[in-house]
Specification:
Elements (H helix, E strand, L loop, with lengths): L11 H11 L4 H8 L11 E7 L2 E7 L8 E6 L2 E6 L20 E6 L4 E9 L2 E8 L12
Antiparallel strand pairs: 1-2, 2-7, 3-4, 4-5, 6-7
């Protein structure tokens, strides 16, 4: 372990090469950590609310989006929210267009011990329940 002390930020690629050579089964984790695609857009806006130690809620504001234009799914440890807007014809010319009428995709990485619970879409607000899986031997037990 003393060899790690000689590395600093300038030597990060060299250090990662050593970790990859000696870390069995960590390739997927490291790829997700270092090669995460950068989000170029902050649309749609969202809140992530931690309700307690094992429950969280993701709220996504989707004004003007219909339920049949949405897709919410998980795949390979990621939560995807996609919206496909159809081109709508408007009589007249926009003086100001403040409502986003575009296709979007938002992706969040979900840890292995998190289960995506119920998904609801009510009044333009998409709510995704996220539950942490607590093994039986870690759950609270009262004896007296």
């Amino acid at each position: 372990m003393t060899n790690l002390a000689q590395f600093h930020a300038a030597n990060l690629p060299e250090l990662m090469k050593i970790v990859r050579q000696n870390g069995i089964g960590m390739d997927d984790y490291l790829d997700r950590f270092f090669n995460e695609p950068s989000q170029t857009s902050n649309y749609p806006p969202y809140n992530l609310i931690q309700l307690n130690n094992h429950e969280s809620k993701l709220e996504i504001a989707l004004a003007g989006v219909k339920k049949d234009e949405l897709k919410v799914y998980t795949e390979f440890g990621r939560l995807y929210v996609q919206g496909t807007k159809e081109e709508s014809k408007v009589d007249g010319t926009f003086v100001h267009q403040g409502l986003a009428q575009r296709n979007f995709e938002r992706v969040w990485t979900v840890s292995d011990d998190t289960k995506v619970g119920p998904v609801e879409f009510v009044d333009g607000l998409l709510t995704v329940q996220l539950n942490k899986i607590v093994p039986e031997h870690h759950s609270r037990k009262e004896y007296l």
